Amino acid sequence: MIGIPIPVGQEIIFKSMIAGDHATVKAWAVETLNELVEGTRACNAVRHPLGFICFPLLRDGDYGTCIHYWPTVLDASSRKVTAVHSHSWHLVSHVLAGRLTNHLSTISDLQSSSSELYVVTSNTSEDVIVPTGRRVRVIEECSTTFIANETHEMTAGKFHWTEFPTDTPTVTVVAGRNEVGRSNFLVDKVGAVPRCVKRRTCSPADSKTTAQRIVELLRDVDRQGLRATQT
Across the beta sheet with 53-60, what order do the strands follow? Predict the structure, then answer.
């Protein structure tokens, strides 16, 4: 659980997510997305290298809250994020629509391995990926699927990869707290050269269109849920 003071602007979101208060989290997300559509809030979406679209809505020191959207237009290979990685931040994620599966792993040194550990330095516009020279093997521990209305946490430094469905879009609210002194890591093939991966910022028009698409998706989820209770 989050154990240190949380900025006032994000306290309700963090606590609601941890408490599993789906109604509050969803209401906040819909209200915020509608503000983007109406132009009363400014936030351009970003296309993340891992394949999803991110709205970086709140930033306050080491804290941040985003809405992540995985549309079905992506091909199947890009929706299976097989690159094992770990974050420098503790995250809480609440699924608003769709589903996801987290595959938790550990790594250990293995000199004969064809995989290498890379350190990733990220900012709002790019990821700089640099080899460490450390050869490792990945050992998968377990996998857990989360569906709409469910919340999960991922501790900083935990290696994992995440799988998303190809038959339905997925929307999550993600709140994170950076842990000072930790690094982001990625497991990749041995011998990859240092590289910089750019994150593409969407135009205001495209951002509004995507926000509207997510709002309509969440409304469809509500309608489907209502029909299910009436049958």
Answer: 151-154, 89-97, 170-178, 63-70, 53-60, 46-47, 200-201
pTM of the model as a whole: 0.86
Within a 13 Å sphere around the CA of 150, how many CA atoms are in the beta-carbon half?
Answer: 12
Average pLDDT score over the chain: 86
CB 29 within 8 A of CB 93: no
Element holding 54 (H helix, E strand): strand 53-60
CB-CB contact of 103 with 129 (8 Å):
no
User: What totals of helices (H) and strands (E) does the chain contain, helices first?
Assistant: 4, 14
Q: 194 burial class (0-12, 13-18, 19+ CB within 10 angstroms)? A: exposed
Alpha-helical regions (H) of the chain: 8-18, 22-38, 76-79, 204-230
pLDDT tens digit sequence for 134-192: 999 999 999 999 999 999 999 999 999 998 888 889 999 998 888 888 999 999 999 99
* Residues ≥6 apart with Cβ < 8 Å to 195: 128, 129
Distance CA 113, CA 187 (A): 11
206: Cβ–Cβ under 8 A, 6 or more apart, which residues?
45
> In this structure, what token pair is assigned to residue 220?
């469809």
Its sign, for the CA torsion 145, 63, 130, 133, is negative
Q: Which two tokens stand for residue 162?
A: 């995440």
Distance in angstroms (rounded) separating the CA atoms of residues 121 and 119:
7
